[in-house]
Amino acid sequence: MILPIVAYGDAVLRKKAQDISEDYPKLEELIANMYETMYGAYGVGLAAPQIGLPIRLFLVDTSPFAEDEDLTEDEQNKLKDFKRTFINAKILEESGDEWAFNEGCLSIPDVREDVFRKPVITIQYQDENFVTHTETFDGLIARVIQHEYDHIEGILFTDKLSAFKKRLIKGRLGNISKGKIDVDYRMRFPDMKKKR
pLDDT digits over 115-126, tens only? Predict the structure, then answer.
């Protein structure tokens, strides 16, 4: 089932999310719905706060990036095969020299800006079977994970922009929070009268 994605301005996007346990109600169904929602909106990642749940759960599927012809075949293959569910994630380390990449967010449609992030991360998380993993990722995979991880920490990519850039997009962010935007996927706006 495709769920509405929560728009910029909703308080749930600013909450630090809570850990969950194996007995979280209907978790398997929730994860399936989140994947369906993400694919329906052409996303490469989706965090539970974006569907209104302040829990430490997010998904990543970088396969759309694999079509970038500027990447090596090895990079394309790595991106094409990367699909992962992250539960109760904790980034243990971020390293390397920060690099810029143009980011967007399903909760902030039609706003894209360059964001600087470290290229390598080590993260501990549980998968959908609650098996604990500690892994190191780099490049675009690391970046998508960092973006989704920020969501469970109550941080949005727009928080990482300069004061000047924030002023430039302030009006657009205000319009998103009021539902004054056309999107081709279901959204829920802070003003609940504007549900589409």
Answer: 999 999 999 999
Which residues are annotated as catalytic? 148
First-to-final CA distance of the chain: 15
Please, are residues 132 and 22 in contact by the beta-carbon 8 Å criterion? no
* CATH number of the domain where residue 43 is located: 3.90.45.10
DSSP 30-63: HHHHHHHHHHHTT-SEEEGGGGT--BSEEEEE-G
pTM strictly above 0.90: yes
Work out whether the CA dihedral 5, 10, 12, 14 comes out positive or negative.
positive
Q: Is residue 192 part of a domain?
A: no
Domain containing 54 equals 5-186
